Structure formats: structure tokens, C-alpha cells
Amino acid sequence: MSGAADIWVPLLVAALGLLPYFLERRRRRRLEDDQRRRVWAEISKVRGLMSDIEKDSSPGAGALQAAGKLSNTLRDLIHEACKMEPKLSLATVRKWRATGRLASDWQEHLALQMLHAEEVPRGDEDGLMRTYGNADELPAEHPMSARRDVQS
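RE: above sequence
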């Protein structure tokens, strides 16, 4: 009987040793599938944008819709970049702004929203609020600004 055990035990150990490989392979396939789904979602947004721009029934309306969709796409991509950053911090966001990856207060504000509260140094809260407290408001002269209608 010990001869059979001498054969089966190493085979069982070898099979158990392969288990992490198969689990990792399945996890990787799921991640790749999620990435593919995101790509197709982005393609869908771009197609919608192209459709809006091609509309010529009311000049300007399609462009405003396209700008709104572009803003949503940019917001999604900034959030995705933040999620993918290994160590997202206030310093990281400020480096992104300094190097041109983030080109406006609004974009920087979107990235800052992804920080955990403990990642904002004590004492910086007031300065950040003064700079970005109204970052979601468009300037009155912007074509999509609600305040533009009030001033007209």
C-alpha cells in the first residue's frame, strides 16, 4: 500500500501547487474583461459625441451637448487615472497640475475629490476650499453657464 501512497502524495502536492496559478489566471482574465468593457463604454461615449456634433438641425445645440459629454468623459478618465495611481496623494495631484496633466482648477478639483481625508495635510483644508470651493461652477461668460441666462 505504501507504493501507491508514494505515487499519489506527490501528485496531490503538485496539483495543489498549481492552484494559485489557475486562480491568478482567472483573476487576470476578469481584469482584462473589465478593461475591454471600459474601452467599449468610452467608444460609445465618443460615438454619441460624434452624433451630436454632426447634428445640424439647431446650430450650437449639438456642440453644447458634445461639450457636456466630453466633460463627463474627462471626469471619468481623471477618476480612472486616480484609481490606477499606486499612491495617490495631494503631492501627486499637484505634480500632475505642474506637469500639465491637469490643465484647470476644475480638473485638479476632480482629482482631489478622489483623495482620502487623511491624505490632506492638516491646515491645508481652508486653502483648498478657497481655491476649489466653487470649481464646479462655470464662469458666467461660459456658453453652458446657468448664470449667463440670468445676466442676459
